[in-house]
Amino acid sequence: MKILLTGVTGQLGHHLQRQLGQQHEIIAPQRTTLDLADTDNIREFVRATQPQLIIHPAAYTAVDKAETDAALAHQINAVAPGILANEAKKLGIGLIHYSTDYVFDGTLRNTDGSLSAYRESDRVNPLNVYGKTKLAGEQAIIASGCEYLIFRTSWVYSLFGKNFLLTMLRLAKERDALRVVNDQWGAPTSAGWLSDATSQIVKQLTSSTDAAHWWKQHTGIYHMTTAGHTSWCGFTEEILRLAQEHGLLERIPGLTGIPSSEYPTPAARPVNSRLDIGLLEQHFGISTPSWQTALARCLSEH
Ligand SMILES: NC(=O)c1ccc[n+]([C@@H]2O[C@H](COP(=O)([O-])OP(=O)(O)OC[C@H]3O[C@@H](n4cnc5c(N)ncnc54)[C@H](OP(=O)(O)O)[C@@H]3O)[C@@H](O)[C@H]2O)c1
Questions:
Q1: Is 130 a catalytic residue?
Q2: Closest CA relative to residue 298, chosen from 252, 218, 242, 260
């Protein structure tokens, strides 16, 4: 299958290119060839390359910077996915897109007051510019009338690119003590596993005898994270433990959990980023590793 894959210099795009490239023809333009801020460029590129599927992990992902760069974030996260979706609709092909836990405000609770995992149908209410632009991107895709899969994920990391895991590994080498937020909850999700799960779904699509029917059955929004949840501090504790086990760290620095109020950031973040992954498992039969298992797998690939 001829797949247009965006964002190959990013974490998820990098893993998808490696994995899907083994079986498919991948058109993988970088920003210099396909600038998502340029709507004409997007239309012309899709029309010239005539893909059979578009997979779109590229995004404006600088959550704090987006607060003061809202116009560009909106162009890339909201307008560009809408244009890709319109082009997909014209070509009669499907679009796989990625969105975020930050479409929610993090206030969802069970009746006993404990944090509840968000379902796809739960009320969205983003707290920051990044979340608002990503939500607008979802809405533009749905409004286009194309066949789509939108995978909302959370806390993405990899040994490639820029992310929390690599930042913590660097800081752990530089410092004797780390202070990390312990009152925001979510599922750290490796780009490697996201790529695996997406590849399994692409395989289901390509082996179906009736692709149009397949899309009709599956089009929609799905939560795609690893299983379980932790805080950023809990994630760090496991990173440090496993990094030492895998020979990436000689010594483990001290670790103290702090409230978010002691680590103010330009963009507000939801306290509760937990996403219910039942629908993904049910529709696609994807087996989801715990976040600890996915982290161990990622670190073993260094
Ligand atoms: N990272 C997370 O924690 C997280 C959490 C929830 C959801 N997500 C979503 O998951 C998806 C993948 O995220 P990620 O962490 O893999 O992203 P990432 O590593 O930040 O990569 C973003 C990619 O988008 C590209 N891009 C940005 N602006 C562009 C432009 N104007 N034209 C062309 N390309 C452009 C970047 O290219 P350059 O290298 O040229 O900048 C890069 O390849 C995104 O949709 C993101 O919103 C991420």
A1: yes
A2: 242
